[in-house]
Amino acid sequence: MTNTILVTGASRGIGRACALRLAADGFDIVVHYKSRECEAREVCAEIEALGRCARRLAFDVGEREQARQRLEADIAEHGAYYGVVLNAGLHHDAPFPGMRDEQWDSVLNVDLGGFYNVLRPLVMPMIQRRRGGRIVALSSAAGQVGNRGQVNYAAAKGGVIAALKSLALELAKRRITVNGVAPGWIDTDMTAGSDVEIKKVVPMQRMGSAEEVAGVVSFLCSPDSAYVTRQVIAVNGGLY
Ligand code: NDP
């Protein structure tokens, strides 16, 4: 039986790259997205072209009840997942003195709240499946060392690290590993239009690609990482 991995925010960017890489590695994929159905369909078609099964699942990871209902229905129909890649996220930057309530609330709700909203319905079925598993959460360089203009995003992504390290302790004896990946500057829609001087800021003098992040996520979902848990791997070109 092929193992299935849910990748949230798989319609584009890092999530899309993770979905395609994990499919190439032999997993069936649940392609989650929020609103870009057309892109999600294309990702599913690419996965099927690789000989793996793919299905779409749409919900807002910040909407707890919606997430719970969609995930429980999917599990009831198809069975528990082997793995989850918590990738869906957003940023809403502002210098702190000018930050609006909505900017703080939306980023905390989606980027940190999503950790709870997505994993809470999934973890018990993963445990009951009794075959181990993999959970990988996308944090960020901002969550490790902070970043100006991103007090909200850094708080959420730092919270993800604290949460995954705690959950790793709870799930270790079940052979479910819980790890994080903390990207630096990665070339996706999220960083398009940024005025950061990458050559000055990043020792490797370039942005990373979504595929380079996906390679690390893939390792953390593979049998090779069976004894790796409660860790956060930075993928940042030497940023810090
Ligand atoms: P993109 O903006 O390119 O893609 C974001 C994805 O998340 C999309 O699939 C989008 O779905 C989905 N999404 C956004 N908000 C929600 C929501 N409320 N509910 C459900 N899905 C949602 O992001 P990246 O690929 O650049 O980033 C992926 C992850 O990596 C994020 O968690 C981000 O914080 C993190 N990261 C990225 C870095 C970078 O430099 N790019 C650096 C550090 C961390 P849809 O297409 O349907 O809108």
Automatic annotation (TrEMBL):
Ordered alphabetically, the record's keywords are: Oxidoreductase
Every Ketoreductase domain range: 3-188
> What EC numbers are recorded for this enzyme?
1.1.1.100
Could you tell me which InterPro entries the record lists for this protein?
FabG-rel (IPR011285), KR_dom (IPR057326), NAD(P)-bd_dom_sf (IPR036291), SDR (IPR050259), SDR_fam (IPR002347)
Keyword Oxidoreductase carried by entry = yes
Question: Gene3D superfamilies this protein is in?
Answer: NAD(P)-binding Rossmann-like Domain (3.40.50.720)
Q: Which Pfam families match?
A: adh_short_C2 (PF13561)
What GO terms are given for molecular function? 3-oxoacyl-[acyl-carrier-protein] reductase (NADPH) activity
SUPFAM superfamilies per the UniProt record, alphabetical:
NAD(P)-binding Rossmann-fold domains (SSF51735)
Q: Specify the superkingdom.
A: Bacteria
> Which residue ranges traverse the bilayer?
none
Q: Which PANTHER family match?
A: 3-OXOACYL-(ACYL-CARRIER-PROTEIN) REDUCTASE (PTHR42879), 3-OXOACYL-[ACYL-CARRIER-PROTEIN] REDUCTASE FABG (PTHR42879:SF2)
Family membership = Belongs to the short-chain dehydrogenases/reductases (SDR) family.
Query: Mind telling me what this protein is named?
Result: 3-oxoacyl-ACP reductase FabG
Species name = Kushneria aurantia
